[in-house]
Amino acid sequence: MQKNLLTNFSACTSVLVGKAASADGSTFIGRNEDSKAAWPKHFVKHAHNSAVTEFISKDTGLALTLPQESAAYTATPEWTDKFGLFEEDGINEYGVAMSATESAYANAQVLGYDPLVAGGIAEEAMVTVVLPYVHSAREGVQRLGDLISQSGTSETNGILFSDQEEVWYLESGSGHHWVAQRIPDDSYAVVSNQLSIQVVDFADTANFMSSPAIQAFASQHHLWRTGTPFNFREIFGTQSQSDLIYNTPRVWYGQRLLNPSSKQKPMSFALPFVRQAERPITVEMLSQILSSHFQGTKYDPVGQGKPKNKHKFRPISLAKTQESHILQLRPNLPTAIGGLHWLAMSVAAESCYVPFYAGISETPADYKVGGATYDPQSNYWAYKLLGVLVDSHYHQFNEQLAAVQNEVHANLLHQLEEADQKAVTLTGTALTDYLTKTSAQRGAYARQEFEALTATLITQATDRSPLNFNTDANL
Length: 475
Description:
This protein is of the alpha+beta class. It is built from 13 helices and 19 strands. Helix 11 (379-392) packs antiparallel against helix 12 (394-423), helix 11 packs parallel to helix 13 (428-461) and helix 12 packs antiparallel against helix 13 (428-461).
């Protein structure tokens, strides 16, 4: 996520998985939305709309006339629209998923020749002006790419798209130039705040897309020599010491979990963008990546390593995560049932992923409330409160948290399987009502179990005060 007026720049981590790389033929895109330690998100469902809409960004001032008809879609906007919408992630009624954005950096030379555009499109608007108007992941790439080329962009970003067949990653590298790559069906990618796409094959239009004049731009300004491989990461990106501390270790750890036999170093610019996993990928494996903090290594900030190692790298899951999502599009099912918006409010390491059907008509009330200060009615704040308690006595409370996370996830999977069996027998309004009801029940169940843990930890914490003292039994 990019910086706005009140958020400290922190940025995100993303994962993308092709359909043949997953255990059940699903496509996946997922991301941690990182900004501030206390900055709530809401979860909403927009209805299908046929009104002509004029969009004006509160972030950059960009004005757009949108198509007359917009699809229904899920989204996770900010708790306030004062600085813009920041809808971030969702699945539309046509079976397209989108997550925006993975903040990145372009090098000074590129930006000198094609500067960022202050009034261009930015993260704040991308989901809102793209997702409701596209019928495929490829169409989503083209729509956003055209907006960047025509209106310019004020940020360097990576954007994730998927449908049941294809997964795409688009990167903007300057004010008007961008490339996009289809993730091969048998592969995955982990991305962390760097321009990541490597060699672009412009002749392979099935797997690569780009701004129209990007080759001419790079050649004209002596950024690339015609006839040599066009490595977008090397031409447009950065290779700084901060990348080795902030970015590459997260890619290394994600690839370490999916390719455990591969020997790589966390401080390396040679980590590949696309990999083939050593075993089929599941939603549990992706949640493990997005909720990780270098467990099992000397770099874990809550581990047993030396202080200089424990705080050497920026972890994947951290206190500044507002929400974490995994957007799953399952095969051979209608979008309403096959699309799952897995959503973990607050810090993924201390929360849980709840699966909401894409075909819901509305989201639960507690997902639509919560402001800048603690609110017991808010779903976001319920999980944030638990995280604060766990953080205060991490080594005493973490095992209890992990036990509840595992139990809740197992029960959510069971509830989802039962709901699937019923859902495929329904159509029309009956199906929509059922998907909405069962999704809300899963959200309520997860919150209930985590609030029970919160009550237990509060009780236990009362005896862990620094003012405590073992009193003589005779007094």
